[in-house]
Design brief:
Length: 102
């Protein structure tokens, strides 16, 4: 039940964001829209891999429980910072500076 609710919420948020930004999306070609969507999916996948495998492996090497969670949170923040930075540069090149917006 929880997974159905989360999936529905995800779909609603995606539809809301597309409708909210439809004026910007009209300025792009179909290929640009596909590449932008793919870039977001790749960034999410890369962050997932870094956090799940990298974070759990590094945190698993630490025996102190408090230090383990601190290290894991630091790894999550680093992974997100890297993925968002790369995504912003890719989007800027693909969309000729229209994305990302602040």
């Amino acid at each position: 039940m929880k997974s159905i609710l989360m999936t529905t919420l995800f779909i609603v948020i995606v539809i809301y964001n597309i409708r909210k930004n439809r004026e910007i999306l009209k300025q792009f070609t179909k290929l640009q829209i596909i590449v932008v969507g793919s870039s977001y999916l790749i960034a999410i996948f890369l962050a997932f891999i870094l956090i799940y495998y990298g974070g759990n492996w590094v945190a698993g090497q630490i025996s102190n429980i408090i230090l383990k969670y601190v290290v894991f949170i630091v790894i999550v923040l680093i992974a997100l910072y890297l993925c968002v930075g790369i995504l912003n540069k890719v989007l800027q090149k693909i969309t000729n500076g229209l994305l990302p917006r602040n």
